[in-house]
Amino acid sequence: MTRVTFQGGRAGDAPLTWGQRAIWNAIMRTVPGDHFFNFGRILRLRTPVPVERARRAVADLVARHESLRTVFPVSDGEPRQRISAAGELDVLELADSENPEAVRDRLEADTFDYPAEWPVRVALLVGDGLVSTVIVVFCHLAADGNGADVVVRDLRLLLLRGVLHTPPGRQPYDLAGHQLSPAGRRAGRAALSHWTTGLRRVPPTMFAERRAAPREQPYWCALLTSRAADHAARLLATRHGASSSTVLMTAAAALVGAVTGQRVCAMMPIVNNRFAAADRDMVTTLAQDGLFVLDLEAATFGELLRPGWQAALSAFRHASYDQVALDAAVAGIGVERGEPVHPYCCFNDVRFADLAGFSGPPPGEDLVRAAMAETTVVWSKRLDQLACRFCLHVEGEPGRLGVSLTGDTAYLPPELIERFLWALERLLVEAAFRDVPMAELPALLSHAVARDGRAVRT
After folding, report:
1. pTM attached to this predicted model
2. Of 220, 324, 340, 424, which one is least surrounded by beta carbons within 10 A?
3. Boundaries of each Condensation domain copy (predicted)?
C-alpha cells in the first residue's frame, strides 16, 4: 500500500445534490448489503508507465475532481457533502500477474465508510517498475457510470501527458448551490408535478401478486445475449423515429402488462441527467429515477411506439428533482389512495451509445431470424436484498445486446424471469417485420423452460 498526497483547490461543505441524495437513500435501504452499489473500471495501458508517474496521475486526478475528495458525514440526521482541499489516498500496488477483474471485485466487496473514507479506491498492477493496469472502484455517491467514464478518460490522459489543460466539468458543490436557487427550485417543482400526476393514475404497484414463496436468496438475475434483439430494436427505432432504448422500454412495458394484466404500466428508467453542456463531464452521481407512464390500450405493439417515445421524453425531462420533497409527496399520495404507491419496476440502459441506424444496409428478415439461434439466456447472479421487484438492465454494443432481468422470486419466479427475456426478444423480432397484435403477447411468454441452469426455447 502506498500513500499519495493530493493538493486540490477549495474546501467546502454543502447539502447533498438531488442525485447524491437519491443514491444515498437507495444505499441506506440496502444496508448492510450496500456494497452492492460499489462499481469499478479497469484501465489497461498499451504502453506501461513508471510507478511514480502513475502515483502522480492519481494524485492529480483526485485534485481535479472534488467528488473524489469528498466525504459524507451526517449532521442532525441529514447527510452532507464535505470537500477537502488536500489529503492522502492509499493506493494498492500489486504484481501485474494479478487478475484485474479479481482485484476489482475485491475492492468492490467492502462497504465504504461514508463519513470517513474517500469515495474512490485505486490499485496499480506493477511489473519491473512499470504500471500496466489501473483499477478504480467508486462509491456510488462519488460517481455514476458516466462520471466514472470521465474519470477513466482523464486518468488515461494524465498518464500519457502528465497534465490536463481543459477545466473539469461543473462540481457537485456548485450544482447543490444551483438546485437551491430560484431556477433550480422551479425545475424541481415541474418534476414533482410530473411525478404526482403520474402516480395518481397508475396502479399502486406493477407486481402486486405473490406467485411463489421467495427463494433462499430472493433476487435472481438472468442475462439474455442476443444479436437478433439488437438488430430488431434498431430496425424499429429507425422506422418509428425513436431510440432503441425507448423501443426496449416500451417492449418491456407491454410485456409487464401481459404478465400482470395491468392496462397502464409505470416504469422507472434511470436517467443520466447530463443534458446540459456544463454537466456532461461532471464527476458525480447525476442519475435519478424517471417516471415512465404508458397506457397499454392499443391494438398492436407498433401503435405503442409513438406514445412510448413521448412518455420516455417526459420521463427524461422530469428526472432531476429534490428526492426529499418527492418522497414526502409520494407518501401523501399513498395516504390519499389508502395504500403505498411504488411501481417496483425499473429500467436501466447503460450502453455508451444508442444507435438506431446501421453503417451499411439494414439486416433482412432472414438474417435477423437466423441470429435467434445464437441467443443465450443464462443465470448470472443471486442477491439477498434489492429495493425492487423487477429490474431490467441493458448493456452491450451495436451488434450485440445484453439484457438482464433481476426479479424478486416471490413475484417473478425464476421460470417467469426466463420466459420474459425470451418473449422480449421474440416480440422485438416479430414487430420488426409485422405489426404484432397486443393480444398475442401473453402467448409469447410461454416459450422457455429451464434445463441445467440455462433457459432454452421450446
Report:
1. 0.85
2. 340
3. 12-322
